[in-house]
Design a protein that fits this description.
By secondary structure, the protein is mostly helical. It contains 3 helices and no strands. Helix 1 packs across helix 2. The longest helix has 13 residues.
Length: 74
Amino acid sequence: MINVCDLLYEICEDQLVYDKDADLVESGLLDSLGMIELFEALADEGIELSPTRVDPALLRTARGIEQLVAGAEQ
């Protein structure tokens, strides 16, 4: 299983990503470029997510992203 927090740390370079309920968008850590990097990194790990079919609310926190990844891995 992919460690989403570690992946987010590589993108955001901030320890706040390890707080699974921190709002990464509101904090400014995950902007539009960061989202692109996230989708690319997940694709590199074999997780294909369609940005237009993802609930944007789930992309705000590490916990939400973990839920997306878990659903895609099934």
